[in-house]
Amino acid sequence: MTVTWEExxxxxxxxxxxxxxxxxxxxxAGLVAGEDAALVIDAGSSPAEGARLRQQxxxxxxxxxxxxALTHPHFDHVFGAAxxx
Length: 85
Hints:
The protein is of the alpha+beta class and 85 residues long. Helices cover 22% and strands 28% of the residues. The protein has one domain (6-83): 4-Layer Sandwich (Metallo-beta-lactamase, Chain A), CATH 3.60.15.10. The protein has 2 helices and 5 strands. A hairpin with a 4-residue loop joins strand 3 and strand 4. The protein is globular, with a radius of gyration of 12 Å.
């Protein structure tokens, strides 16, 4: 079953590129999907939120997240990083 970006709450801004607004702290996370790689930008405010982002990225790209970029050290952007290997 193929899941669309919109079904998971993501806004697709270009081919293989999307963003989503995270609840509570109104933080934006991003996803850039390549042929064999996936980059998540910002990990959310908790390990649970990070795990949800990781799972959604895997569902959308068909492979595991290979890269994580953190834009700045605020908790609502970095605490979810623990959910990424």
